[in-house]
Structures are given as structure tokens and as C-alpha cells.
TrEMBL record, chain A:
Residues 46-109 form the ChsH2 C-terminal OB-fold domain. It comes from candidate division TA06 bacterium DG_24. InterPro entries: ChsH2_C, ChsH2_Znr, NA-bd_OB-fold, Thioester_dehydratase-like. This is Transcriptional regulator. Residues 8-44 form the ChsH2 rubredoxin-like zinc ribbon domain. It holds the Pfam family zf-ChsH2. PANTHER family: BLR3430 PROTEIN.
UniProtKB/TrEMBL annotation, chain B:
The keyword Methyltransferase does not apply. Its EC number is 2.3.1.9. Keywords: Acyltransferase, Transferase. This is Acetyl-CoA acetyltransferase. Residues 239-383 form the Thiolase C-terminal domain. It comes from candidate division TA06 bacterium DG_24. GO terms for molecular function: acetyl-CoA C-acetyltransferase activity. Residues 8-220 form the Thiolase N-terminal domain. SUPFAM superfamilies: Thiolase-like. InterPro entries: Thiolase, Thiolase-like, Thiolase_C_2, Thiolase_N.
Length: 129, 385
């Protein structure tokens, strides 16, 4: 991971900044330049809800190299209370007890140690609410 | 627009081809198609390839391959839309012939995936997902399809058994295809007890890492009648559509809307309905994918894809045999080659040339090839002449 590539996403990964279309009200995460719902081009910056429910999930048992130390780990698509869906790891959870509909909240966590560029990557993970 | 026909097909044995360079895998396969077509020259060429840059460190692929095939200086282009690159190459070739720009076009697909380690292949394939908002969190491709499977099971009651039946069926078909990477049968118990990759998907729910190529020669239909000695197969429908690259951004993650849209366009162009399709080659990169695809193509109702495989509806001898070649599951999945290999199988079937796995009386065949978790899809419909 190059440092510019990491740096550019910091507002989303650290602060959950999304773009709300001022024409139709759709919230886009990450922000876009054009609204995919109404083609609007005006947005205001809003912060995502930090609680939601598990929409679907899986347990990653065969992980990419920078995640091998964490495997097995749960990942899911979480529907936040503002209606936005995100993909994230679901941490601090009993892998056998995880289920669709479970309540979770977002926490700021270490995501991966990326070896080659030496960047320690942070961001959001979900944990049981 | 001119009518276009497939007049030659080529495919060699797929697998782990460590002793062959990418360029040689291509030339060997292209020559099979050229010889099958009985043509003495090629006017233009397309190659579908997802990531020769990440898999073998080689870009500028089309020129390299045209050079080694000995057809330079004809125009050659490489096209990419992840695992649907082969289907896209076929569509581009069809358009070029239909528009009258070229007469005899070689369409090929290729991927050489085993020169890198397993982790290198996982990384290269992962680039077909949203790198910043899926891959960043440690979500793999099996992980994305596993989340689709989990939700399909939740919404429609699809069972672990039904997922396994897709693998069992496609391996049963693939056992009759000597060119398949894994031409042997597997049992439900073997699938259900194989190593877990991303719950509920196990290794026998996943298509393999494969080296391989596929090629077809196409030309105007009226010229096809004077070339070669095999019956030409007519291209009657083509559709291409996109969807969000991130799975989480779709309103219904088990509904492949790009497949639905591409199929609608292809059905409309061909003037056929789903129940007029005699056989289909579809993108079973994971067992759940075939279940979702058969729904989006309109072969069965929404949510009924699991029951379709369980009842034998999609098996050889069933109403619409799906993946008679063995599919990606048994035949192998060299990603850029897959879409063209589907056309190879349909052509063999519509010529009545598919050996033990021949669908009796096959007249109309459909190919569905998709990229990523469904962010791009190509659908083609071919008809016997
Ligand atoms: Zn809008």
C-alpha cells in the first residue's frame, strides 16, 4: 500500500465521512462526485451512523498474507441505522454465534500491518453492540 | 449489420502448465481454432485477459501474441473486464465483423495463473473487487460469494446440500470433457467435508486456479458457408451490462442485475425467451454463483435456483442443461479464457460434436460470463445453422 493511497482514504476510514446528495438525500460511502441515484453533483459531508445490524457475514479461513495472523476472522456487510451498507470485519465476536440481524457498532481499530511499505493501516471494524 | 458465425474453435488441455510460456499456451490454442476453421489468414484479433500484468508481469499482450502467432501487422487488441474479459473479447470481435470492418477475426481468451504463489493469485483476483472498501478489510473473493450464499440461504431457504449439488453436477459433466482440469466426479459428502474456505463455502464449492486459453474464429455468415467443412454456428444475441463493483452497494446482494440486464438485451436481439434455450454455459466461479445466475437468466423463478439443481432441471438430460463442459468448477477457470471457452463448448454442442456430453437436438445455446462479484456480465446466444 503506497502512502498517498492510504492517506486519501483517511476521512472515510478514521471519521466515517460520507457524501449526502443535496438533491435526493441519498448517502454515499465513500463520497462520489456524481450521485448514482439521481445524477446530482452537490453533496454535503455527513458522518455515518456508528450502529447497525449484520446483513450477511462469513468467516474468512484462508486469508490474504497481510491478514494471515488474524485468521479465522469474521467479515460482514452491515446495514447502518442511516440505511448505508458497508463491508467490515466483525471483531470480538464468538464466530459460531454470529448471525444475520445481530446488532453491532463501529469501533476504530488496527486493520492490517502492510509489510512492504511499512504502513500500519487503521480503520473501522464492527463489534457487538 | 452483417450476420456473424463461429466457424472454428480451439481449446487444449487446461491445468497447471508450468512447462509452457503464456505466449505458447496462446499460440497452441489459436492454431487449433484456425485449423478448425480452415482459414488461411486472420484480419484482426481480440484477446480477453484479466491480469497478465499481475500474473506473469507482461502487459502489451495483444501485440506479443499477434507477433508469436505470426499474424502481425494485423490489428490486435486486449480487452479487460475481470473474469468476463473473454466474453467481452467475443462481443468486440462480433461487432467488428458485423460492422464490416473485418471479415475473419480471431477471438481468444487466456490466463496463466500458476506462475505466482497462491497468495499472489488471491491478490490478483482480489483486484476485481473494490480494493479500498472490500479488499482493505480482508475480504476475499470466496468471502464475497460466501456472503451471497449466506443471504440466499437466509432469504430463500437454499440448503448446504443444494450448493454441493452444483459441484457434483458440474464434475459429473466435466468427467466427460477430456480437456477439463479436473475431469472426475465428486460426491456430495466429499464437497460437504472438504476444507472450509469462507463459511459456508468449502474448497469444492470454488473454481480452481488454472492455466489455459480458448479461441474461436468468426466471420460473416454468408462467407461461413464457403469456408471449412463444419457447420457454422450463428451468433444471434449479445448483451453486456454493469453493476456496482462493491457487493454491499447493491439493494439485493443475491440478485445479479447485470446478468438480468445483459440477458434481456441478448434475448431481445435473438428473439427468444428463456424457455427456448436448449443449454447454457454459465459462470459458476462458486457453487452459489450458478444458483443466482440461473435465476437472473430467467431459467427459474427468483429464489428457486437451489431447487433447480436439486431436481435435475439444470443437469444433462434435464430441461436446460447448464455447464455441460464441466463449468468453471471442473473444467477450470483461467479467468480471461473462460468466456471464450463457453463459446467453444456451445459451438461443439450446436454442431452436434460434443461426444458423451452431447445435448440431444441442441439448437439454441446461451453463454453467461461475469466479472468480480457480478459487476460486469456478458451474455451471448448462439444458434445452430
Ligand atoms: Zn441524488
Amino acid at each position: 500500500m503506497s502512502s498517498p493511497r492510504y492517506w486519501r482514504e483517511i476521512p472515510q476510514r478514521y471519521r466515517l465521512e460520507a457524501g449526502k446528495c443535496t438533491d435526493c438525500g441519498n448517502i454515499h460511502f465513500p463520497p462520489r462526485l456524481v450521485c448514482s441515484a439521481c445524477s446530482g453533483r452537490q453533496f454535503e459531508t455527513v458522518k455515518l451512523s456508528d450502529e447497525g445490524t449484520v446483513f450477511t457475514y462469513t468467516i474468512i479461513r484462508v486469508a490474504p498474507s497481510q491478514f494471515v495472523d488474524q485468521a479465522p476472522y469474521a467479515v460482514g456487510i452491515v446495514e447502518l441505522d442511516d440505511g448505508v451498507r458497508i463491508s467490515a470485519q466483525i471483531a470480538d465476536v464468538d464466530l459460531d454465534a454470529l448471525e444475520i440481524g445481530q446488532r453491532v457498532r463501529i469501533e476504530f481499530r488496527l486493520i492490517q500491518n502492510e509489510g512492504e511499505a511499512g504502513i500500519i493501516c487503521y480503520g473501522y471494524k464492527c463489534v457487538p453492540a | 449489420m452483417r450476420d456473424v458465425a463461429v466457424i472454428g474453435v480451439g481449446m487444449a488441455k487446461w491445468g497447471e502448465l508450468w512447462d509452457k510460456a503464456l505466449r505458447d499456451v496462446f499460440v497452441e490454442t489459436a492454431l487449433l481454432a484456425i485449423d478448425d476453421a480452415g482459414v488461411d489468414h486472420i484480419d484482426s484479433m481480440y484477446v480477453g485477459c484479466m491480469s497478465s500484468g499481475l500474473f506473469v508481469g507482461q502487459e502489451h499482450l495483444a501485440s506479443l501474441l499477434a507477433d508469436y502467432l505470426g499474424i502481425a501487422p494485423v490489428p490486435a487488441a486486449r480487452v479487460e473486464t475481470a473474469c468476463a474479459s473473454g466474453g467481452l473479447a467475443f462481443r468486440q470481435g462480433w461487432m467488428e465483423v458485423a460492422l464490416g470492418q473485418s471479415d475473419i477475426v480471431l477471438v481468444s481468451g487466456i490466463e496463466k495463473m500458476t506462475d505466482v504463489t497462491g497468495d499472489g493469485a488471491t491478490y490478483a483476483l482480489g483486484t476485481a473487487a473494490d480494493q479500498e472498501y472490500e479488499g482493505y478489510h480482508g475480504i476475499t473473493f470466496p468471502g464475497l460469494y460466501a456472503m451471497m450464499a449466506r443471504r440466499h440461504m437466509h432469504d430463500y431457504g437454499t440448503t448446504r446440500e443444494q450448493l454441493a449439488q452444483v459441484a457434483v453436477k458440474n464434475h459429473r459433466h466435466g468427467a466427460m470433457n477430456p480437456l477439463a482440469q479436473f475431469p472426475f466426479e465428486v460426491t456430495i459428502d466429499q464437497v460437504k467435508s472438504s476444507v472450509m474456505i469462507a463459511d459456508p463455502l468449502r474448497i469444492l464449492d470454488c473454481s480452481p486456479i488454472t492455466d489455459g486459453a480458448a479461441a474461436v474464429v468468426i466471420c460473416p455468415l454468408d462467407r461461413a458457408k464457403t469456408l471449412g467443412d463444419k457447420p457454422p454456428v450463428k451468433m444471434v444475441g449479445s448483451g453486456h451490462a454493469t453493476d456496482t463493483i462493491a457487493l454491499h452497494a447493491r439493494p439485493d446482494i443475491t440478485w445479479l442485475s447485470a446478468t438480468e440486464r445483459a440477458a434481456e438485451a441478448a434475448y431481445k436481439m435473438a428473439g427468444v425467451k428463456p424457455d427456448q434455450i436448449d443449454l447454457a454455459e454459465v459462470h459458476d466461479c462458486f457453487t452459489i454463483a450458478e444458483i443466482c445466475v440461473t435465476e437472473a437468466l430467467g431459467f427459474v423463478d427468483r429464489g428457486k435456483g437451489g431447487q433447480a439443481v436439486e431436481s435435475g432441471f439444470t443437469a444433462l438430460g434435464g430441461t436446460i442443461p447448464v455447464n455441460t463442459s464441466g463449468g468453471l468448477k471442473s473444467k477450470g477457470h483461467p479467468v480471461g479464457a473462460t468466456g471464450v471457452a463457453q463459446i467453444v463448448e456451445l459451438t461443439k454442442q450446436l454442431r452436434g460434436d460434443a461426444g458423451d456430453r452431447q445435448v440431444e437436438g441442441a439448437r439454441v445455446g446461451l453463454a453467461q460470463n461475469m466479472g468480480g462479484s457480478g459487476g460486469s456480465t456478458l451474455v451471448h446466444i448462439l444458434e445452430a445453422t
